[in-house]
Amino acid sequence: MKFSAYQRTEQGGRSSNQDRVGYLYTAESVLFVVTDGLGGHANGEIAAQMTVDTMMQAFQKQASPVIADSSQFLSEALLQSHQEILQFSSKSNMEESPRTTLVALLIQNGQATWIHCGDSRLYWIRGEKTEQRTRDHSYAEQMPQSMIDSAEYLGKEVNRNMLVTCLGAPAEPIYDISPTVDLQIGDKFLLCTDGLWGSLNEDNITQTLAASSISVSVPQLIDLALKLGGVYSDNVTAVGMEWQG
After folding, report:
1. What is the pTM of this model?
2. Are 229 and 236 in contact (CB under 8 A)?
3. What is the DSSP letter of 234?
4. What is the per-residue pLDDT across 21-45, written as a single tens digit (0 to 9) for each?
């Protein structure tokens, strides 16, 4: 298994960095994870870190050297992360549990499967176009177009930051998991928090990733997001991967 990867997280203009990122691999399998602790809830960085740790620990236990069932692994690891956060909150007597988004990508046997909860995104680039992009669990992306176009919303901007689900909330998390797809050499993936995609348009993300290697394009996107965000920039975090066969 051959791939190249680049990861980076930046605090931006915020007082702390609640994003987390990581990847782990065996000779035949690799897991990428990005989380974004919710700033509106206390200790979001704790939920973000716990989720990365839980996902990685599950991968270490089960990848020998591959995961038996990619979809089952991702969904079980996500739900385990959610339970770990709730248990931590209960033991710590927190008034409100810390919360986080999650996007994770598992690649093995020349195939990719991914899962997400919240508005941290995955972009799959093949050639010069975006083959697929995750749909945020936010009111802006989950609300039916008919409602957005209604008289009540005409002339108003739907708040893209309002999420309908996350890990660590009292309700069971809603999540989407992809079909397992066959990879081609040169396929690229970008996992990122809203601090990156919120400052950039999708054409710019696609064109930048398509134009150069992951080690060049991902830092370019991060630097541009930070520049456009200015002194009020959100945390900006991304990990990119290029499949090499």
Report:
1. 0.93
2. yes
3. P
4. 999 999 999 999 999 999 766 789 9
Cα–Cα distance between 230 and 226 in angstroms, integer? 6
The string of pLDDT tens digits covering residues 85-108 is: 999 999 999 989 999 999 999 999
With vertex at residue 113, the alpha carbon angle to CA 110 and CA 117, rounded to the nearest 5 degrees, is 160
Dist CA 241 CA 4 (whole Å): 6
With contact defined as beta carbons under 8 Å apart, do 106 and 114 qualify?
Answer: yes
The HSE-up count of residue 55 (CA atoms within 13 Å, CB side) is 32
Amino acid in the structure at residue 169: A
Pairing of strands 111-117, 100-108: antiparallel
Contacts of 20 (CB under 8 A, 6+ apart): 9, 33, 34, 35, 37, 45, 48, 49, 51, 52, 237
